[in-house]
Amino acid sequence: MPLRIVQSKQNPRLKQLRRAVAQPLRDAGGAGRGLAGIEGLNLLEEALRAGLRVECVFVAQGSERLLDDLNVAGLNLAPETEILLLPRALLDSALATEAPQPIAALVELPGWTWEHILGTRLRGAPLLLVLAGLQDPGNLGTILRSAEAFGASGVLSLPGTVSAWNPKAIRASAGSLFRLPLLAAEAEDAIPRLHKHGVTIWTTLTERAIPASETNLAGPVALIIGNEGNGVPASLAARADGILTIPCPGPVESLNAAVAASVLLYEAARQRAASPGFQRSPR
Description:
Elements: E1 4-5, H1 12-22, E2 35-39, H2 41-49, E3 54-60, H3 65-72, E4 82-86, H4 88-92, E5 103-108, H5 114-118, E6 127-131, H6 137-149, E7 154-157, H7 167-173, H8 176-179, E8 182-184, H9 187-196, E9 200-204, E10 210-211, E11 221-225, H10 234-237, E12 242-245, H11 257-274
Parallel strand pairs: 1-4, 3-4, 6-7, 6-11, 7-8, 9-11, 9-12, 10-12
Antiparallel strand pairs: 2-5, 3-5
Helix pairs in contact: 6-7, 6-11
């Protein structure tokens, strides 16, 4: 596959990468699916395994062997994928990490829909997360990784939540973002839709709450995870069906959002594994 040499910061593809990294989209939206910038061989491999379309690959001069590593792993780029070879400093200037890796790519965002979140493809009861105002991209990425690990069927991202395609979130998700259905949604649409499909919505608070282990998380459920500092907005919590909490015997007022979400997902997975006839939703 031919490589094209790039020497200018004004290259249109390099501008696209820079913009995708600096201003990540929240979802596909608009007329097209949109592009996300990813960095590093491992994430590129995960994107290819997940079947994402790779629009363009950027390789620093002297690191062309990384393309051979893809072929050795059986992850061949499509013939139409552009491959640009450029000076390391030029590639570094488009990336956001302190120690940028020598390979990056523009990939098309997955086209997730409500059908993936609540549709007929799910054999088991939906297990969903609703992210309300989550601001730390590292937390968001960790939550996505835990969600996939514990069998969640999807994630809803409400306005005010950081983009899952933020470079830090992508890295923290370790590839789960490429496989786990994630949909940007408005609460005014999402809450009625969840209720219409028989999904019980639990909010997370510390007062007047039921311990998670005493609730039924084996059925169709959605767990609202709020902002790191302010928690779940009162207006949204008021629309939930119940309040649950994670009892903490130690002198700690609350858990980190990603830790709390992970514990609740584990509890849901534990209950579901013990539930007769439970079937894990396929991916």
